[in-house]
Structures are given as C-alpha cells and as structure tokens.
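Q: what sequence does this backbone want?
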C-alpha cells in the first residue's frame, strides 16, 4: 500500500463484472483500480505493468484459472495480496487457493461495503476470512493426499513453541483472536504477536494457512 492508497488489479473474464467492481472500488485516494485483465494468463504481465497491492480475481476463468494465477503470483518476490471471487459455495477449489496464499475470498453477491472492507483489510496484511467462514472451509478438506499433508504439517508445526502451537490449534478450530485470548488467558495483542511470530517461523502469508496446517496435522480435535 502506497501513500496514494491501495492499488487494485481486477481479473475476471466477464467485462460487466469488472465494470461493476471498478464502480465500487475506484475511489481515489483511498482505493484506485490501476488495471484489468480478462484471464489468469494475463495476470503476471498486468501485475508487472501496474504494480498492484491487491489482485481481486475470479476463481473460474477460461484459460488459466484464478487458482493457477494465484500460485504463480505468490511464488514471486514481494507478491501482491490476492482476493478470490466465486459465485459458488466453499469447496476444495477455494481451499487450494487459500493454501497457495490467497488473502481471502468473496462471493460475487457480497455487498459493496464488504468488498471495500475486504480489500482494505487484505492490503493491510489481515486476511479477510471470518472465523465462521474458516470453519466452513475446514469442513471441505478432502482426503486425497491426507497422509502426506499430515506429515508435512506436523513437521512444520514442530518449529513452534508450546504456546504458539496452542494458538495454532485454536486458529485451526476457527476461533477469533478474542476467543483464543479468552481460552488461553492471553490479551488480543499477545495473540496477534504469537500469530506474527508463527508466520515468520513457518514462512507463511496469513493466519488462514496456519489454521490449515493445524487441521492437516489433525490437532484440532
């Protein structure tokens, strides 16, 4: 995020959707739509051309879909934050995108005020995924590759302190910072500090990825 506000790249194969999002989001100086793309295959070039802070992108597109584009973007140095748009319920597809480092997702019928809040939150480094939605996401974890994911997740979480692991488990149960603080007798600020430390130790992008690790490690009960 620059002194000129949040720079946004819109990616959707439907020009009407892009136009509607531009009307909602193009509100200088706080938010500025700096570019558009109609397909995931155009995202890397558009990101290079416009240097967005946030990419707001449809999941299902012809050619390269939003998941593939997310994975490509998140592999880059200093990548933009990503919010994915979907017209469908939470499913394994969205889960994979969150594992890849997307900062959140929105349904296409999300009210404009919520879209604005999501973009500003994600631009500030706070994933836009409510605890209630996270719990729904975790119910869709599929069984394919579960053994490998469990082994990997447990190896990753072994890097954490005992208290950090407790916070990670609570994140995996879909609890908010306030709920975690109440359960573990910590202040919200201390919970946030633990989350920040875990992100650094695990080289992750956001708290949702920590929650998914805890779930994969089968620590959430």
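A:
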């Amino acid at each position: 995020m620059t002194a000129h506000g949040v720079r946004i790249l819109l990616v959707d194969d439907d020009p009407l959707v892009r136009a509607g999002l531009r009307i909602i989001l193009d509100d200088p100086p706080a938010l500025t739509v700096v570019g558009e793309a109609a397909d995931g295959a155009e995202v890397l070039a558009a990101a290079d051309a416009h240097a967005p802070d946030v990419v707001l992108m449809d999941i299902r597109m012809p050619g390269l879909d939003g998941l593939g584009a997310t994975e490509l973007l998140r592999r880059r140095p200093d990548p933009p934050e990503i919010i994915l748009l979907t017209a469908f319920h939470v499913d394994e597809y969205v889960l994979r995108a969150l594992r890849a480092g997307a900062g959140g997702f929105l349904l296409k019928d999300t009210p404009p005020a919520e879209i604005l809040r999501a973009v500003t939150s994600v631009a500030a480094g706070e994933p836009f995924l409510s605890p209630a939605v996270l719990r729904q996401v975790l119910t869709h974890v599929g069984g394919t590759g579960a053994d490998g994911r469990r082994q990997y997740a447990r190896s990753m979480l072994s890097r954490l302190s005992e208290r950090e692991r407790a916070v990670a488990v609570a994140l995996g149960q879909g609890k908010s910072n306030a709920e975690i603080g109440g359960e573990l007798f910590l202040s919200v600020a201390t919970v946030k500090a633990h989350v920040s430390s875990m992100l650094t130790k695990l080289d992750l992008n956001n708290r949702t990825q920590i929650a998914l690790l805890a779930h994969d490690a089968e620590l959430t009960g």
